[in-house]
Amino acid sequence: MPTYFHGTVVSDVITMVGEPERGGIDVALGGGEFGRGFYTQSSKSNALTWAQNHRGEPENACLLEVAIEDEAYARLQIRLLDTKQAKRLTQRIRKRKATRTHVEGVDVVTGPLNGSRRIQQQKFESDNAQVLLNGSQTRRRLI
Amino acid sequence: MLDKLPYIHYLAKIHRARQTILISPAEIPAAEFNGGSFFAPVNDLGSFFPIYRFDFSIYRGQGKFLKPEQGKKVFNGMAFAAVDQRRDALICTFEYPFGLKPSNGHANMPLWFFEERPSHVTPRFRKVQSGGRGKLFHYRGDLRHSDFKHPFVELELGEPAILDDLLEEWGLSIVGCSPKLRYSQIRKQKAMPARG
User: Fold this and answer.
1) Which A positions 112-141 lie with beta carbon below 8 A of chain B?
2) Which of A86, A123, B8, B72 has the fewest C-beta atoms under 10 angstroms from its C-beta?
3) Is residue B192 assigned to a domain?
4) Is B180 close to A56, i.e. CB distance below 8 A?
């Protein structure tokens, strides 16, 4: 079961967790290295460190864990990027100042986190992906 | 003397004007996500300083942290330069939380994991190698800290999953150099949902 982490503040996680059948994740709100979407990563510790540094207040940080059923995740259209492809995409997006608008036209884009050799990030960008993230086939919880 | 020691920082690499520069995650808009890594300031030759400080927190889950005593918001850690498997390394130690004393009774000693726990739970940072040496980066953001006058090298862990293990087993989370507590001129950001 793919399990990913998103570091942010408690109030946001409560909104995202929502009800079992209806979460509150919105793929149109966020942006980043791969463009517009909802971002997660494979490393729990890095997600928490990010949250503690990003919002400035270390004690306000927390983690959202999303665990997605294998079959449902496998049905998504996923674009896998290697280190070079990820770097090129990020450079292109930053040059166009499109970190909050660019979409790749798939459900999920995955690739190394800021060139990391260890940590993968996932960008969920489509309506399909949002429905899956907010539905009963994904376990969302504040950890 | 301790208050003059450099910190390990958690910073984000971004590309600007054909250069890769460093900024703090605190300078990235609240709704944007950009991966971060740990970086250490180094001397002009790219060598580690002998000792570094870092902030760490103890996460209890559900958005709750163990609060240090005396109004502090984070705990203190120290990292010592050493040579590990023929590579320069920084070996991290952690202050004991209040009320907990190591078995040797020295409450103010750093927590030396490798004395009391298996060595695999001691985080050891190494320089990310590029062409046989650590590539130098410069902080180019709008915040101030005495370390920002130095070049930085990116750090990676000798054992990649060790920080996840420490968080899982002990709740330990290395913050780096807390922007809110240690950097000046933090720009006020609009209250927007964070994504990252």
Assistant:
1) 113-119, 121
2) B72
3) no
4) yes
Token pair, residue A116, equals 């990391």
Residue B152 domain-assigned (yes or no): yes
Helix (H) or strand (E) holding B170: helix B162-170
Q: Which pTM does this prediction carry?
A: 0.90
Q: What is the pLDDT of residues A34-76, one digit of tens each?
A: 999 999 999 999 999 999 999 767 778 999 999 999 999 999 9
CA B5 remoteness from chain centre = 13
The nearest CA of chain A is from the CA of B60 a distance in Å of 9
Interchain CB contact of B118 with A (< 8 Å): no
Tell me, yes or no, whether B196 lies in a domain: no
pLDDT single digits (tens) A78-111: 999 999 999 999 989 988 989 999 999 999 999 9
Domain assignment of residue B57, yes or no: yes
**Burial annotation A64-88 (CB, 10 A radius, 16+ → b, else e):** bbbebbeebbeebeebebeeeebbe
| Tally of CA atoms within 13 A in the half-sphere of A128 that contains its CB | 11
Interchain contact, A32 vs B179, CB within 8 Å: no
CA dist A50 to B26, B104, B177, Å? 9, 34, 12
Domain that holds residue B118: 2-182
* Count of domains for chain B: 1
The CA distance from A2 to the nearest CA of chain B, in Å, is 16
